């Protein structure tokens, strides 16, 4: 059977029906605060036991793809990232909505998420086994350097408010250290609270920082609705050729970055989106416009976010290494249906795995349908009076925080971080560095300590490998790039003085 | 600019977006807040947090486990001290700060706290059924049709979608 025949087997009534169900559930769960693709796959996994393997994988794949996208809608329109992965969408997406370009923002995030997803899936289809070999070379030190890319992004994010941003980042770092030490198993900084004995949970913190703080800002500003003015949702979700051309490069670059980072186990969406955003901002002629509603910024992160989906399945399907939490659930799905990841999957069980890959491609088409045709419906959310929207967001966020670990304490935690986020926002302290450092802090510490243990005093054997040197060069370049103009200006001044 | 935009909105109470006039209007408002530099609040908060983490780190027996957090604590204290020095030198004023309407926000935080505590007693559905109309009324919604419709609609949606379709465990109270 050739690849096209695998594509043809997808078009049965049963497969298409479960694809639609998976795609719809994915978008809805992705958009709801606290829910995510993980939740959807976790819930639907038992339901797919009785289905044929191809149909089951198509349904779960559709949830994964559209679940990654669903969070973009609420992040862009109401500054409430449905999932922690979507937090980067708020940087430029929400300011676009505030400028009255909510529809355009949905168009940008939809097109670029579609492109990112397609690049990831095509990589999975054509170059999966070759790319998967890369994952073998990533040890603790290389993973530390990859996580450092995400940390370095913080510096470029807060270029204008460097000191306040770095303070915010260090606070995020400290909060990430709460709970069990990943290497020794010793619980640290729990301050006698049993609910945070193992960790300070990610989702309640992110929901508090972004969604709840925004709720308080809306109340403090006494706004009638999110959008400002009657004609604020002007324009169209369909982008003009000029607008498409404007975001084309950032979208393609974000897609490739997302796919490549997705392949690296544990690197995650945050690193991919952050790296893509940083590159887009640093290489743009007008970097100051980033964070204030620049479509290029939104396109770069949306593409990277969905590029990770295809990328994370590469090491899973070929080596049996899940790239992130969601792909770990996928591995469970494969094993339940008697499919062992590895080379055999692409030979004897090819019809299942290619069915999954083509299912992912079709699910990406659903992103376009949901995004472009549903945009006017979603945009109405921003016109809902604050007096209605705030209580509804609050009730959903409280439930989302609870559902993360089924602990009542997490509902209180979301409020605490909401209040902290509100005061940080009002005192001019940027929130994004806090959240980035919080998400990446624990991995950075564990990878560094693990690398130091592995070095056993012989630093050169670990640090002076070609991959390590390449990653160090990328890290240094990322660090210097945002300040390149300042450095050049400094050298010019010295020359003039001389 | 984004913060200034928000500041501008509160000053003018206008819902239009005019970035070009932000500076002038912002300056007018800031004259009122000349006394206390609110950036000091950030310093106090950061010192308290990093101090608490630093003190707690000394209780960790394993050296490797406490070194990294202590480095971060030291960095945090260093950056906050740098910030404090810059505040004293007058580099950071109340320009980036807008605390207007904080009273309203704190009042809402209090209502949400009661809601969360209420969930622990009555369970999620009943607490939400009471919280939604109460919050809508506090926030100025006076249309009873909207209040009742949203209240019933949201609770019903949560019950059907999360409770029935997804069989999700809902927060339960002591009483129900």
Outline the fold blueprint.
The complex is a heterodimer of chains A (498) and B (176).
Chain A: H1 3-8, H2 13-31, H3 37-47, H4 53-78, H5 89-98, H6 102-126, H7 128-135, H8 140-157, H9 162-176, E1 179-180, E2 187-188, H10 202-221, H11 241-263, H12 268-283, H13 295-319, H14 325-336, H15 343-347, H16 350-379, H17 386-405, H18 409-426, H19 432-455, H20 459-463, H21 466-480, H22 484-497
Antiparallel strand pairs in A: 1-2
Helix pairs in contact in A: 2-4, 2-16, 3-4, 3-14, 4-5, 4-6, 4-13, 4-14, 4-16, 5-6, 5-13, 6-11, 6-13, 6-16, 7-13, 8-9, 8-12, 8-19, 8-21, 9-19, 10-17, 10-18, 11-12, 11-13, 12-13, 13-14, 17-18
Chain B: H1 2-12, H2 22-30, H3 39-57, H4 63-88, H5 102-122, H6 124-138, H7 144-165
Helix pairs in contact in B: 1-2, 3-4, 5-6, 6-7
The N- to C-terminal Cα distance of chain A equals 73 Å
What count of helical segments of chain B does DSSP give? Answer: 7
**Helix/strand order of chain A:** HHHHHHHHHEEHHHHHHHHHHHHH
Q: What proportion strand of chain A? A: under 5%
Largest sheet entry of chain B:
none
User: Average pLDDT of chain A, to the nearest integer?
Assistant: 82
Q: For the record, give the distance between the C-alpha atoms at the N and C termini of chain B, rounded to a whole number.
A: 49 Å
Share in helix of chain A: over 70%
Keywords for this structure?
heterodimer, A: two-stranded antiparallel sheet, B: 176 residues, 3 domains
Describe the structure.
The complex is a heterodimer of chains A (498) and B (176). Chain A has 498 residues and is mainly alpha-helical. Chain A has 22 helices and 2 strands. Chain A has one domain (3-497). Chain A has helices at residues 3-8, 13-31, 37-47, 53-78, 89-98, 102-126, 128-135, 140-157, 162-176, 202-221, 241-263, 268-283, 295-319, 325-336, 343-347, 350-379, 386-405, 409-426, 432-455, 459-463, 466-480, 484-497; strands at 179-180, 187-188. A two-stranded antiparallel ribbon of chain A has the order 1-2. In chain A, strand 1 and strand 2 (187-188) form a beta hairpin. In chain A, helix 3 runs parallel beside helix 14 and helix 12 (268-283) packs antiparallel against helix 13 (295-319). With 176 residues, chain B is an all-alpha fold. Chain B folds into 3 domains: 1-34, no CATH class; 36-97; 102-165, no CATH class. Chains A and B meet through helix 9, helix 10, helix 17, helix 18 and helix 19 of A and helix 1, helix 3, helix 4, helix 5 and helix 6 of B.
């Amino acid at each position: 059977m050739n690849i096209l025949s695998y594509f043809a087997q997808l078009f049965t009534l049963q497969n298409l029906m479960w694809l639609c169900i998976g795609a719809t559930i994915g978008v809805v769960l992705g958009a709801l605060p606290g829910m995510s693709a993980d939740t959807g796959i976790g819930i639907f996994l038992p339901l797919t036991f009785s289905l044929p393997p191809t149909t089951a994988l198509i349904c779960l794949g559709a949830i994964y793809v559209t679940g990654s996208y669903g969070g973009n809608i609420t992040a862009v329109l109401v500054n409430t990232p449905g999932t922690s992965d979507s937090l980067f969408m708020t940087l430029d997406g929400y300011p676009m909505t505030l400028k009255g370009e909510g529809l355009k923002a949905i168009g940008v995030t939809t097109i670029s998420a579609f492109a990112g997803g397609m690049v990831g899936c095509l990589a999975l289809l054509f170059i999966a086994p070759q790319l998967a070999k890369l994952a073998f070379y990533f040890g603790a030190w290389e993973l530390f350097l990859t996580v450092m890319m995400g940390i370095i992004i913080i510096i470029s994010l807060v270029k204008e408010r460097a000191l306040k941003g770095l303070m915010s980042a260090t606070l995020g770092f400290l909060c990430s250290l709460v709970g069990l030490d990943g290497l020794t198993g010793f619980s640290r900084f729990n301050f006698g609270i049993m609910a945070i004995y193992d960790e300070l949970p990610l989702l309640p913190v992110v929901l508090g920082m972004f969604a709840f703080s925004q709720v308080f800002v809306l109340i403090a500003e006494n706004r009638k609705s999110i959008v400002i003015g009657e004609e604020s949702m002007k324009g169209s979700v369909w982008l003009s050729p000029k607008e498409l051309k404007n975001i084309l490069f950032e979208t393609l670059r974000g897609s490739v970055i997302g796919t490549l980072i997705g392949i690296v186990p544990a690197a995650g969406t945050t690193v991919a989106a952050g790296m893509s955003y940083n590159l887009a901002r640093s290489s743009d002629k007008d970097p100051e416009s980033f964070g204030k509603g620049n479509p290029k910024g939104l396109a770069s992160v949306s593409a990277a976010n969905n590029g990770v989906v295809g990328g994370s399945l590469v090491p899973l399907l070929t080596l049996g290494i899940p790239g992130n939490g969601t792909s770990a659930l996928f591995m469970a799905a494969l094993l339940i249906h008697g499919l062992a990841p590895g080379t055999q999957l692409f030979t004897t069980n090819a019809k299942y795995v290619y069915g999954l890959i083509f299912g992912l491609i079709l699910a990406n088409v659903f992103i376009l349908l949901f995004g472009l045709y549903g945009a006017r419906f979603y945009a109405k959310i921003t016109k809902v009076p604050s007096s209605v929207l705030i209580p509804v967001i609050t009730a959903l966020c409280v439930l989302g925080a609870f559902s993360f670990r089924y602990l009542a304490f997490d509902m209180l935690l979301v409020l605490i971080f909401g209040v902290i986020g509100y005061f940080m926002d009002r005192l001019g302290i940027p929130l994004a560095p806090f959240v980035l450092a919080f998400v990446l802090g624990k991995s950075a510490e564990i990878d560094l300590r693990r690398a130091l243990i592995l070095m056993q005093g012989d630093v050169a054997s670990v640090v002076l490998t070609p991959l390590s040197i390449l990653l160090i060069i990328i890290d240094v370049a990322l660090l210097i790039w945002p300040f390149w103009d300042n450095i050049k200006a400094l050298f010019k001044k010295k020359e003039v003085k001389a | 600019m984004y913060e200034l935009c928000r500041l501008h909105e509160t000053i003018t109470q206008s819902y239009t977006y005019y970035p070009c006039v932000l500076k002038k209007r912002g300056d007018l408002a800031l004259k009122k807040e000349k006394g206390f530099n609110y950036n000091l609040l950030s310093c106090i908060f950061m010192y308290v947090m990093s101090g608490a983490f630093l003190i707690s780190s000394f209780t960790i027996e394993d050296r490797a486990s406490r070194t990294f957090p202590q480095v971060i604590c030291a960095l945090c204290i260093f950056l906050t001290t740098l910030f404090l020095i810059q505040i004293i030198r007058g580099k950071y004023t109340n320009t980036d700060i807008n605390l207007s309407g904080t009273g309203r926000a704190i009042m809402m935080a209090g209502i949400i706290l009661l809601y969360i505590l209420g969930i622990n007693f009555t369970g999620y559905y009943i607490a939400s059924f009471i919280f939604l109309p109460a919050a809508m009324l506090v926030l100025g919604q006076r249309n009873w049709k909207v209040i009742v419709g949203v209240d019933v609609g949201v609770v019903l949606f949560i019950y059907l979608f999360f409770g029935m379709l997804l069989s999700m465990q809902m927060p339960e109270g002591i009483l129900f």
